[in-house]
Amino acid sequence: MPEEPKSPTLPPSGEPKSTAGHAPAVPAKPAGPVPIPWDSAMVGKLKGQYGSGIREANTYLGQNYMVVEPSIVSELLQILRDREQFDYCVDVTAVHYPQREKQFDLIWILYSFPRNERIRVKTMIADGERVPSAVPIWATANWLEREVFDMFGIRFDGHPDLKRILLPDGWKGHPLRKDYGIIQQDQEWVQANLGIESGQ
Amino acid sequence: MGAGQPGDRERPINMTDRTITDPKGDDPKTADSTRFLSHLELDQPDKTFLDSNELVINMGPQHPATHGVLRVILKLDGEQVLGTECVIGYLHRGVEKIAEHRTYTMFNPYVDRMDYVAAVSNGLGYCEAVEKLLNIEAPPRARYIRVILTELNRLASHQLWLGTHALDIGAMTPLFYTFRDREEILKIFEKYCGARLTTHAFRIGGCQYETYEGFERDVIKFLDFVPPKIDEYEELLTTNRIWLERTKGVGVISKADAIALGVTGPVLRASGVKWDLRKAQPYAAYSDFDFEVPIGANGDTYDRYSVRMEEMRQSLRIIRQAVEKIPEGPIMAKVPKVMKPPVGEVYHSIEAPKGELGYFIVSDGSTQPYRVRVRPPSFVNLQALDNMVRGALVADVIAVIGTLDIVLGEVDR
């Protein structure tokens, strides 16, 4: 394989040497990507409407996302579909941060066919907090929300049939939570239903 | 097609060996008879239970036409479907959980096991997502190799779809034809990277292997070999009367429903939405090539068939351009041995043979991803099954499962 001149796009990986030295932490990641504010007419309008309900609107690596308060999320998603033409809900998913007070990031990935634009809407919720379902807005959210419930135990208000989708109905625990071990299983369920001592 | 309105199915009695006649029927007597009652009529007191044909049955999970371990609970009135519910998860392996306990490099082969008939596409999506997170780009030559292999894989995936879909509907010959020709693609994969199915063809940052001696020759030979074969498939099916009866007007999904249900790929395009991620948001080297995005008009099973047939030809066009223009140069970007992407999140999606395949990756700055979410096209497309089969017949459920082109490995992950 021929060697190419060193690529300048690469974020510096040899940081450990430089961090300890002279400049305080700041120049350590000069080429590393940082979120930059996302300015657009849509964001301006939404910020005017909701003020601090929209906590952040940034662009990271060319991808736009906004972080919003859970209280406005349902209304905002409705507006995004009706007024801003985000007619395709690509995905609904979550991330678990057990150390945080609001343990879950809940993320909607939206796409607009007319605008050819993709955005992410993110909100943070505590364990046990309920979120309004997006099924009345996009029918596709049905199974996606069921999967989030199955994997994280987040409940969606107004979902037509919120039950487990990938795991068996009687299963205990939500595997994609960080406190659920990778080889952990619902042994009770395994013993009762599979007739074996352990699935491991 | 509305639920419980058998009258709006515009087709004569089917050519298959059904013993129960079509609710519409040609005979005015049967058309007026009360044999086919909607569930609403059943509440009327003057009807006896003998009038009711309503019954709930399980199709699958061990049913050959469900393409794996899909279980569909069907609520039937005679032969007519009143509603369905999919039970999935039999093949759930916790891929997303595994990802959190592997390094970025270690997780790469796992993605091949999701949509295992289009492993190359899975790998492309994952590698590009991680590259985006690392803020690097694969060199041009690697991107061209990726396009060639991914398009070959799209062809292989569509051939497998065609063979099994036709088999489900009752035509056995196409299966042998498509598998014969798919073999040529798998041979190219095998010569390139040693594997035929779960290829692990790409690495984060580019490709591990340079093309082998004679790769271009093999691909060109294949490009000359396969178009007459596609014509051959079409000869068997496109104007075949049984095929038309079984696919025209079956499993119709409207444009609005398709968008609301988040359906992507050929299923969406057959409903008349001209949308393909390779055009809309080009990745790899797709912006360099000329190709058409075929669409359908009616959103029925036949249109989805036509769209996929045309997609095969367009894939060949892309491959030919890529082989002719393939640049020289390195195939691997400079990637750190220990990959620690900066803290952040990224979503990247590609047009897999089945639709939009997306990866949402969260990095916490360590060597292992904090979270990997896979947006599987098969999973989301399968959700549209209920919409597509309500009011249809049981045999149409088989046709619709086939036409959705699902792979349960990807549905369940």
The gist of it:
The complex is a heterodimer of chains A (200) and B (413). Helices cover 22% and strands 23% of the residues of chain A. With 200 residues, chain A is of the alpha/beta class.
Question: Could you describe the 3D structure shown?
Answer:
The complex is a heterodimer of chains A (200) and B (413). Chain A is α/β, with parallel strands linked by helices and 200 residues long. Helix content of chain A is 22%, strand content 23%. Chain A has helices spanning 15-19, 41-50, 73-82, 141-152, 187-194; strands at residues 36-37, 54-60, 63-68, 88-96, 104-112, 117-125, 131-132, 156-157. In chain A, the strands form two sheets. Chain A has a six-stranded mixed sheet. With 413 residues, chain B is α+β, with helices and mostly antiparallel strands. Helix content of chain B is 44%, strand content 12%. In chain B, a hairpin with a 2-residue loop joins strand 6 (344-352) and strand 7 (355-363). In chain B, helix 5 (140-169) runs antiparallel to helix 6. The relative contact order of chain B is 0.18. The model of chain B is unreliable at 1-35 (pLDDT under 50). At the A-B interface, strand 4 and helix 4 of A face helix 2, helix 4, helix 9, strand 6 and strand 7 of B.
**Helical proportion of chain A, percent range:** 10-25%
The counted number of beta strands of chain B is: 8
Shape category of chain B? globular
What is the typical, i.e. mean, pLDDT of chain B? Answer: 84
Oligomer: heterodimer
Number of helices of chain B: 16
The arrangement of helices and strands of chain A along the chain is HEHEEHEEEEHEH
State which percent range the strand residues of chain A make up.
Answer: 15-25%
Largest sheet of chain A: 6 strands, mixed
Low-confidence stretches of chain A: 1-30
Q: Please state the structural category of chain B.
A: alpha+beta
Biggest sheet strand order of chain B reads 1-2-3
Measured as a percent range, the helix fraction of chain B is 40-55%
